[in-house]
From TrEMBL:
The gene is cysS. This is Cysteine--tRNA ligase. It comes from Gracilibacillus orientalis. ATP binds at residue 269. Its EC number is 6.1.1.16. Zn(2+) binds at residues 29, 209, 234, 238. InterPro entries: Cys-tRNA-ligase (IPR015803), Cys-tRNA-synt_Ia_DALR (IPR015273), Cys-tRNA/MSH_ligase (IPR024909), CysS_C (IPR056411), Rossmann-like_a/b/a_fold (IPR014729), tRNA-synt_1_cat_dom (IPR032678), tRNAsynth_Ia_anticodon-bd (IPR009080).
């Protein structure tokens, strides 16, 4: 079945037809690296990584580009507040971003371009727009001439006059029209800058993505993706400047993920409910966080709370327990079952249903429901009198492949030997005697992660695999 994508540009689901056979050119707007990312930034990282993984599962090569905005007003302000250089701050939080999303199961992009490393391309892009009459210089600043692009507003589905009514010219701006936007900003004293034909300055926000997409993926790309909040003005402006400069369609499919609410309220600094992914990872299992994010369709808003995360953990544990039980049963199979084909056929039907849901605009919520159907089927099979390794292998392979698509691959930790468990228990007993309860709890939790359950009884500590 062909993959269909809800295209923000047309507001319809459309069958995906790549520009080149079996290849996907995909650009995702990345973070402005002036701080740790919040969970609103983590959602598109997880969502579009899953989209990429599913394309790869279906046999596509995905040229995945995610940029870093490593110079802009937020970085400059942070540098002033901290007394550091902009590149130092950017480098620190690029490293932090990569660490955080890696823990959340996000694969490294094929390209991670930065604004500061794409400056020649950005300046060339702006020059082309000026030469074609779509931009103008004003005392060291350069602005895009919005009314020169007659399709402006096609992504946000608003007319240019409707958009104009909500804008105004800020103090110090020299643009000719309220809707015109900055491509190049003249440097203020003491700010980081680059030489250009219009004097020392730095790029505006929108131009960077157009230049990077063109450099790494070409004039027209398959998919452009990002958070819903970027639809206007960022993505609208990208379309205008890219199509004005290149004379061709910029992106064939536009994908946007929904917002995150905290306890049913929109996340914002002013409400004090701003949650950093960096902090959240310390309190919750990253794989559960990712599972939770994918339990709702990517275009829908998602409500975040500790109670909902706990519920997600309980649900995810059912999958892990099923895999563990299948692995343990495999060791004791006598292979006397004679109805293997019926079970294999049932698994195949569920595989087709899983792919049908994912083919339908990457509906991970429904795909996860199919996964639980498979878990239920596996549990019924494990309760039967006779089992066969062929069927158990099929259950394990299917669940493992689906978890890989969702970005929750299973670790290949070697199973602890009995004597290793006993040694850790002795170490825990010693820690409790020394009132080092933190170490004792850590050992218990580490063993639990490895599916070793401890029971403290009057006769001593017992353990079991579970």
């Amino acid at each position: 079945m062909t993959i269909s994508i809800y295209n923000t540009l047309t507001r319809e689901k459309e069958e995906f037809e790549p520009i080149e056979p079996n290849r996907v050119k995909m650009y995702v707007c990345g973070p402005t690296v002036y701080n740790y990312i919040h969970i609103g930034n983590a959602r598109p990282a997880i969502v579009f990584d899953t989209v990429r993984r599913y394309f790869e599962y279906k046999g596509y090569q995905v040229d995945y580009v995610l940029n870093f905005t490593d110079v802009d007003d937020k970085l400059i302000n942070a540098a002033k507040e901290l007394g550091e250089e902009v590149p130092t701050i950017a480098e620190r939080f690029i490293k932090a971003y990569k660490e955080d999303v890696s823990v959340l199961g996000v694969k490294e992009a094929v390209h991670h371009p930065r604004v500061t490393e794409t400056m020649d391309d950005i300046i060339s892009f702006i020059s082309t727009l000026i030469d074609k009459g779509h931009a103008y210089e004003a005392d060291g600043d350069v602005y895009f001439k919005t009314r020169s692009f007659d399709r402006y507003g096609k992504l946000s589905h608003q007319s240019i006059d409707e958009l104009r009514s909500g804008t105004r010219i800020q103090v110090g701006e020299k643009k000719q029209d309220q809707l015109d936007f900055a491509l190049w900003k003249q440097t203020k004293d003491g700010e980081i800058s680059w030489d250009s034909p219009w004097g020392k300055g730095r790029p505006g926000w929108h131009i960077e993505c157009s230049a990077m997409a063109k450099k790494y993926l070409g004039d027209t790309i398959d998919i452009h993706a990002g958070g819903q909040d970027l639809t206007f003005p960022h993505h609208e402006n990208e379309i205008a400047q890219s199509e004005a400069a290149n004379g061709t369609s910029f992106a064939n499919y536009w994908m946007h993920n929904g917002y995150i609410n905290i306890d049913n309220e929109k996340m914002s600094k002013s409400l004090g409910n701003f949650v950093l992914a960096h902090d959240l990872i310390q309190r919750h299992e990253p794989k559960v966080l990712r599972f939770f994010m994918l339990s709702v369709h990517y275009r829908n808003p998602i409500n975040f709370s500790d109670a909902l995360l706990e519920s997600a953990k309980n649900s995810y544990d059912r999958i892990e327990n099923a895999l563990t039980n299948l692995e343990h049963r495999k060791e004791s199979c006598v292979n006397l079952a004679d109805d293997n084909q019926q079970w294999l056929d049932n698994i195949e039907v569920l595989k087709q249903q899983f792919e049908k849901e994912m083919d339908d605009d990457f509906n991970t919520a429904n795909a996860i429901a199919i996964m639980f159907d498979l878990v239920k089927e596996a549990n019924v099979y494990l309760n039967s009198d006779h089992t066969h390794t062929e069927v158990i292998d099929a259950f394990i392979a299917t669940l493992t492949a689906w978890l890989e698509v969702l970005g929750i691959p299973q670790t290949d930790d070697e199973e602890l030997l009995d004597e290793e468990i006993e040694a850790l228990i002795e170490k825990r007993i010693e820690a409790r005697k020394n009132k080092d309860f933190q170490q004792a709890d850590q050992i218990r939790d580490d063993l639990k992660e490895r599916h070793i359950i401890l029971e403290d009884t009057p006769q001593g500590t017992r353990w079991k695999r579970g």
